[in-house]
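C-alpha cells in:
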C-alpha cells in the first residue's frame, strides 16, 4: 500500500441520483460516474458490500475504471457483524473475502466493520472476532477498522483490544453515536456524519478548517486536542499515519463538494 498518500478525503459510494446535475455534469453518462468521481476525489467508501456480495468481474471493473493512486475502502458484510456471537463469524468472513476483493490490488485501502447500535461490548467475544480478521487475502495486505455505536464501548478495554491487533477505531462525528478518538493503529479512519445539505460544502468553512487541522495532526502522528478518548492515560506513538476521512451525512447531496473542499484544505 505504498501508493497511499497521508490524507485522503472521500464519500460513500458513487451511484446517487441527487448528485446528477449537482456534482456530476448533466451530460455525464451513469456508467462514467465512478471514473469521474475517482478523478475528483482520492478515495471512495464502498457501502454496497454491507448488503450484498459482488462478482470478481465487478471488482476488476472498479479497479480498471479508476486512476493510479486512487483507493477504495470496503464496508464489511452485515451478515458478519449483525450476529449474536461474533466469535462464530469465521465462515462469514471467508465468504466475504472470497468474493473477489483482492482484485482491487493496491487500490484496496482498508476494510471497515460497522456494528449495530444495539451491539454491546463483550471483550471476550469482540476480541475473538478481531482474532479472526485476516491480515491478507490472495497476497493483498488488509487493514481493518471498526465502527461501534453502543455506549458500552466507552471503556479502555476497547482500544486496548484494537491496539493488540493494529485495528483502527473509526472516529464517528455523529449526533448520537459515541465519539471515540483513541488512535489504535498505524492509520486513522474518520466518518464525518453531521454535515448539512443547506451548506454548499456540507460543513461551513470554519468547521472544515477545524477538521483539516485534525486530519493533519493525525497524519503527523499526533492526537487532536478536544476529541474524546476512552483511554486518556494512553498516548499513541508519534509516527506518520495514513488518514481516511469520509463526509457521509444524512442527505449527502453536498458530500462530494465537502470532500473536495476538505481535501483542498489539507493539501495546502
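Residues out:
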Amino acid at each position: 500500500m505504498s501508493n497511499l498518500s497521508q490524507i485522503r478525503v472521500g464519500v460513500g459510494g458513487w451511484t446517487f441520483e441527487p448528485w446528477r446535475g449537482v456534482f456530476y455534469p448533466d451530460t455525464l453518462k451513469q456508467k462514467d460516474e465512478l471514473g469521474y468521481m475517482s478523478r475528483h476525489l482520492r478515495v471512495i467508501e464502498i457501502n454496497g458490500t454491507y448488503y450484498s456480495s459482488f462478482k470478481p468481474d465487478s471488482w476488476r471493473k472498479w479497479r480498471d475504471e479508476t486512476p493510479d493512486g486512487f483507493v477504495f475502502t470496503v464496508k464489511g458484510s452485515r451478515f458478519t457483524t449483525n450476529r449474536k456471537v461474533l466469535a462464530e463469524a469465521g465462515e462469514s468472513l471467508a465468504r466475504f473475502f472470497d468474493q473477489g476483493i483482492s482484485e482491487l490490488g493496491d487500490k484496496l485501502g482498508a476494510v471497515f466493520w460497522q456494528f449495530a447500535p444495539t451491539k454491546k461490548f463483550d471483550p471476550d467475544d469482540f476480541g475473538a472476532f478481531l482474532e479472526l480478521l485476516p491480515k491478507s487475502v490472495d497476497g493483498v495486505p488488509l487493514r481493518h477498522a471498526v465502527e461501534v455505536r453502543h455506549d458500552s464501548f466507552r471503556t479502555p478495554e476497547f482500544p486496548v483490544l484494537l491496539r493488540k491487533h493494529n485495528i483502527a477505531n473509526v472516529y464517528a462525528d455523529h449526533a448520537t453515536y459515541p465519539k471515540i478518538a483513541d488512535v489504535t493503529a498505524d492509520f486513522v479512519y474518520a466518518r464525518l456524519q453531521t454535515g448539512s445539505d443547506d451548506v454548499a460544502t456540507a460543513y461551513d468553512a470554519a468547521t472544515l478548517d477545524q477538521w483539516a487541522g485534525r486530519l493533519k495532526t493525525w497524519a503527523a502522528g499526533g492526537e487532536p486536542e478536544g476529541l474524546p478518548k476512552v483511554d486518556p492515560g494512553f498516548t499513541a506513538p508519534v509516527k506518520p499515519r495514513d488518514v481516511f476521512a469520509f463526509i457521509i451525512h444524512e442527505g449527502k447531496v453536498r458530500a462530494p463538494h465537502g470532500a473536495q473542499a476538505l481535501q483542498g484544505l489539507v493539501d495546502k
